[in-house]
Design goal:
The chain is α+β, with helices and mostly antiparallel strands and 313 residues long. The protein folds into 2 domains: 73 residues, no CATH class; 170 residues, no CATH class. It has 15 helices and 6 strands. The strands form 2 sheets. A 4-stranded mixed sheet has the order 4-5-1-6, with no helix packed on it. The chain has a two-stranded antiparallel ribbon with strand order 2-3. Bound molecules: iron/sulfur cluster. The site of iron/sulfur cluster (SF4) has 11 residues, from helix 5.
């Protein structure tokens, strides 16, 4: 089996109690059958607490407490389950998150999602072009998968071509992969995203702000302000391409995946420009937070991803 990961991946670590938007708050946490059996075998006070904290209705899951907190997230922001039994005790979803995996025949790709602020900080602060690390060999090579991987590498090479501006790279990507993005104003894009499923109130506020103030954004001024920090947008583009390009294996449509990657990067540029136009400041922390919201709201909602892919097809 071939394993692939971006070169920054081994440096990821959860910042636990220092995390402002813990993934243990506001997300439904499903429990896989193996972990459920393990939890049910635990005796004593922790066993009792587990019994009271798990709903067996439909997919077994933890019953979230006040403020949609995981019942095992303590007041110090630490996980009582880990404190009780170490990381091995965790169910699959908690062990994995924010790691994601993509599967192709003979090949597994791993990465960390922007919905986690520690991952966002790591990804967006990379200054050098990100490289993909490969270990192992594909035992039964699949011609279609190999072609897609080669095409994605071509897309990544375009995205990382620092002899061109980011706008030129985006146009080159759309041209090469027959991508298409509707020519909408910032206000119209706000409407498109407001029509999608939304989770956090703060994301709705961001989009309503774009709808109300979108026509006043100073994009050229923001581009000048971001001089020297263009790599943040390169890393976003590379992240979206790495994560979503190969899903074309399922539907055969590379163009919509490239278009989605470019659109997502442009939306984050637009929202950054809006923030800067209104406040005069846009820090790396602001960028990480915007990317976190975008990822949580869009990438982690299959309905939203499907809606955008369909629109861009
Ligand atoms: S969001 Fe990331 S940093 Fe925060 S608790 Fe989850 S894994 Fe850790």
């Amino acid at each position: 089996m071939q394993m692939v990961y971006p070169d920054y991946y081994p440096s990821f670590s959860c910042i636990a109690d220092r995390c402002k938007h813990s993934c243990c708050i506001g997300w439904e946490i499903d429990i896989d059958p193996e972990s459920l059996a393990r939890f049910q075998a635990i005796e004593g006070p922790m066993g009792q607490r587990l019994k009271e904290s798990i709903s067996l209705e439909e997919t077994p899951h933890f019953i979230l407490g006040e403020g949609e907190r995981c019942p095992f997230l303590n007041e110090k922001g630490l996980c009582d389950l880990i404190l009780h039994g170490g990381e091995e005790i965790l169910c699959q979803i908690c062990t994995d998150h924010p790691r994601y995996r993509s599967f192709l025949p003979g090949r597994t790709e791993i990465g960390v999602g922007l919905c986690c602020e520690a991952a966002g900080q790591l990804i967006l602060s990379q200054k050098e072009p990100v490289k993909l690390c490969v270990s192992g060999t594909a035992e039964e090579p699949d011609a279609e998968a190999e072609l897609l991987v080669a095409l994605r590498q071509e897309a990544l090479d375009i995205a990382q071509d620092r002899t061109r501006s980011l706008t030129e790279r985006e146009s080159a990507l759309l041209e090469r992969f027959q991508g298409w993005i509707p020519d909408l104003s910032p206000v119209q894009w706000a409407e498109v995203y407001l029509d999608l499923e939304r989770l956090e109130e703060t994301w709705t506020e961001v989009l309503e702000n774009l709808r109300n103030q979108g026509e006043y954004i100073d994009r050229e001024g923001f581009a000048r302000y971001m001089k020297g920090r263009e790599t943040e947008y390169e890393q976003l583009l590379v992240y979206f391409l790495y994560r979503h390009f190969l899903t074309a294996y399922e539907d055969g449509d590379v163009g919509s995946k490239v278009s989605f990657s470019v659109l997502s990067t442009r939306m984050l540029f637009l929202l950054g420009a809006l923030c800067w136009t209104q406040t005069g400041v846009f820090t790396l922390a602001d960028q990480v937070e915007l990317a976190r919201q975008y990822s949580a709201e869009i990438e982690y909602s299959q309905d939203n991803l499907d809606a955008l892919f369909t629109m861009l097809m």
